[in-house]
């Protein structure tokens, strides 16, 4: 007998309930000849009906969610529940929900017929779903387009079991924005920098930086981690100021405007990262007082003008900073007026937790009302950023916002290295002795070429050049094992506090943060003290170290050029022309005073004793001079100085020959010139 699956029951093909009531064994079941067999058949059918009509549980119980195996179609209307299948039970296997076309009452013959779910789950409430894991295993496939012979609409009963394809909306490695009112970064720059590095923050919007003096370069050296840069808008007077610290792997461009505002400070930047383009606005509004003579009414006039300019930008927009309005107090007229101004421009404020230690919401994160830029509401958290004395001097909490944009890859750099440590000293000295054999017939140029080319070939043989790509990471040189242990204990205490949410655990976490801050400042102080002592009499190394400590930028930025040779010639012509200009200026001055124009070329006659005999230098003298000299090297040296000293016996003969050739030739030429 052919059976057809119809909803939840097995029926003989073409048979309905009315047919079963008037069943004729001679027509439908010719094999049945007596009432006993007919009773057995009807009982079997009723057993199947009962089995299929009941929802059966699993071995673990009826409340256990069973796995779903289904094929689905993506064009149907998305609903929270599909016949007991809650959307939270489906694994997000893609990136976003498929766009659904508008449903209408017109037939949709060209649309594929959806398949049914063979196994469903219990229709639980939303509250129950919040307490259980959403990662229920679900196998979802999409069936090919099978056209129906009937006209179907999305509201048709056969569509009740169709599950839409859901795409993943969470970014695995999202771009991270951090907002903080520092109340002066001068005494906590190192703590802020360490927080940026430890939490892998990409954009740090800082308000009330108190920067702008001549000594702030030292603060910026501590504040900006390696691999980051800063845009800073200081206040002309004391206090205030806004800044943005950003990862160099993100394209950030400072925006300028002709508009000026007197009631608040602002900084705007255009940010491009991966496929995200947005405008970031950092705002700081000081609280009105008699000294600053600020007015709330004037602020809202300027604020409305500011929003009118930036709300019309085509890209996404984020406005963050400290507005100093008690947004948690609904009865406050200024707060209501501020929220109303946002609604008038299609914006909304997302921060819903206190950002100040006194329990008020003063800092904001504002986006468009229909924006999907952020994954969720911003997270307000207190990281206990301390000063050098381990005292929490910041009265605001930080705000972390996760964007629906993947972090850009870290900046990579290609370098060329030679592994000198892997050189076999014995074989290296043998090659040097066999190649560097100067003869008396060679002149000075020949000896120099022999030394340079010979050493270069031997080095390439024993330590060939290797190209390596490294990733630039914002690491600190004073990061010690003691500091690593302290950070690990702090993170452990933080996890305990967040799991229990007890006050005692919060206090323990706070103490760990204070100890870590003290250790951070002490580690840096010890590192630089040791480094300065190691410099000794090396003034070049000392100036380089102090320049980095003071925040001086040592990056060399060359002009743009398509050809390196042309760029080098431009440099040479510049300095040659500069020297020629100085000479011409001196000649003009000499002509005006009546002095001979050839004074620059005039030579003073030597009146001392004549040196007529020169003795060549010995190998022992050259060896002593080389060993006394510091082990410094230049990029143009064919061999590092420390390796030359290590194999000094093989290099002394050819170096002595060069010195004697150079000295004797120059001295002889000078004697001839004197005699003339």
TrEMBL record:
Positions of transmembrane segments: 35-53
Domain of life per record: Eukaryota
InterPro entries the UniProt entry points to: Endo/exonu/phosph_ase_sf, Endo/exonuclease/phosphatase
MF terms in GO: catalytic activity
Database matches in SUPFAM superfamilies: DNase I-like
Organism annotation: Crassostrea virginica
Endonuclease/exonuclease/phosphatase domain residues: 179-327
Keyword field: Membrane, Transmembrane, Transmembrane helix
Name of the protein this chain belongs to: Uncharacterized protein LOC111114900 isoform X1
């Amino acid at each position: 007998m052919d059976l057809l699956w119809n909803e939840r029951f097995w029926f003989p093909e073409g048979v309905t309930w009315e047919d079963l009531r008037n069943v004729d064994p001679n027509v439908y079941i010719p094999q049945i000849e007596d009432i006993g067999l007919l009773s057995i058949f009807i009982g079997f059918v009723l057993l199947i009906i009962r089995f299929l009509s009941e929802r059966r549980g699993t071995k673990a119980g009826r409340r256990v969610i069973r796995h779903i195996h289904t094929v689905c179609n993506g064009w149907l209307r998305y609903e929270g529940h599909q016949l007991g299948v809650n959307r939270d039970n489906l694994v997000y296997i893609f990136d976003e929900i498929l766009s659904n076309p508008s449903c209408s009452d017109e037939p949709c013959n060209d649309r594929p017929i959806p398949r049914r779910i063979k196994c469903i789950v219990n229709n639980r409430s939303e509250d129950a779903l919040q307490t259980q894991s959403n990662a229920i295993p679900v196998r979802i496939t999409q069936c090919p387009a099978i056209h129906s012979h009937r006209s179907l609409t999305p509201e048709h009963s056969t569509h009740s079991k169709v599950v839409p394809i859901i795409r993943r909306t969470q970014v695995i490695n999202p771009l991270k924005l951090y907002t903080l009112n520092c109340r002066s970064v001068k005494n906590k720059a190192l703590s802020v920098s360490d927080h940026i590095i430890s939490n892998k923050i990409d954009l740090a919007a800082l308000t009330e930086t108190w920067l702008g003096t001549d000594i702030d370069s030292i603060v910026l050296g501590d504040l900006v981690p390696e691999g980051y840069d800063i845009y800073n808008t200081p206040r002309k007077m004391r206090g205030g100021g806004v800044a943005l610290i950003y990862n160099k792997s993100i394209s950030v461009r400072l925006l300028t405007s002709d508009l000026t505002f007197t009631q608040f400070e602002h900084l705007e930047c255009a940010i491009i990262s991966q496929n995200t383009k947005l405008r970031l606005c950092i705002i700081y509004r000081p609280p009105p007082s008699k000294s600053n003579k600020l007015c709330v009414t004037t602020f809202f006039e300027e604020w409305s003008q500011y929003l009118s300019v930036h709300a019309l930008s085509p890209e996404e927009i984020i406005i963050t900073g400290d507005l100093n309005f008690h947004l948690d107090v609904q009865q406050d007229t200024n707060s209501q007026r501020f929220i109303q101004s946002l609604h008038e421009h299609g914006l909304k404020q997302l921060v819903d937790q206190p950002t100040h230690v006194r329990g008020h919401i003063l800092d904001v994160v504002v986006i468009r009302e229909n924006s999907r830029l952020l994954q969720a509401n911003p997270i307000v958290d207190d990281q206990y950023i301390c000063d050098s004395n381990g005292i929490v001097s910041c009265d605001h909490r930080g705000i972390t916002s996760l964007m629906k944009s993947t972090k850009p890859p870290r900046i990579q750099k290609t370098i060329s290295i030679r592994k000198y440590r892997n050189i076999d000293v014995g074989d290296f000295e043998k090659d040097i002795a066999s190649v560097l054999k100067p003869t008396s017939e060679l002149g000075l140029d020949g000896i120099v070429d022999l030394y340079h080319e010979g050493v270069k070939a031997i080095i390439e043989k024993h330590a060939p050049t290797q190209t390596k790509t490294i990733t630039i990471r914002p690491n600190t040189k004073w990061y010690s094992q003691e500091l690593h242990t302290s950070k690990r204990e702090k993170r452990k205490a933080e996890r305990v506090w967040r799991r229990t949410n007890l006050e005692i655990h919060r206090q323990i976490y706070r103490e760990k943060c204070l100890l870590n801050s003290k250790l951070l400042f002490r580690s840096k102080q010890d590192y630089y003290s040791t480094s300065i002592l190691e410099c000794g009499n090396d003034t070049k190394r000392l100036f380089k170290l102090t320049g980095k400590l003071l925040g001086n930028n040592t990056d060399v930025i060359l002009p743009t050029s398509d050809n390196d040779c042309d760029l080098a010639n431009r440099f040479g012509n510049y300095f040659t022309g500069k020297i020629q200009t100085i000479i011409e200026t001196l000649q003009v001055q000499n002509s005006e005073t009546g002095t001979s124009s050839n004074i620059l070329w005039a030579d003073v006659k030597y009146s001392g004793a004549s040196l007529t005999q020169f003795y060549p230098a010995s190998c022992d003298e050259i060896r002593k001079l080389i060993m006394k000299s510091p082990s410094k090297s230049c990029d143009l040296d064919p061999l590092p100085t420390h390796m030359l000293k290590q194999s000094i016996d093989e290099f002394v003969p050819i170096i002595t020959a060069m010195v004697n050739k150079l000295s004797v030739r120059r001295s002889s030429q000078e004697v001839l010139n004197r005699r003339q």
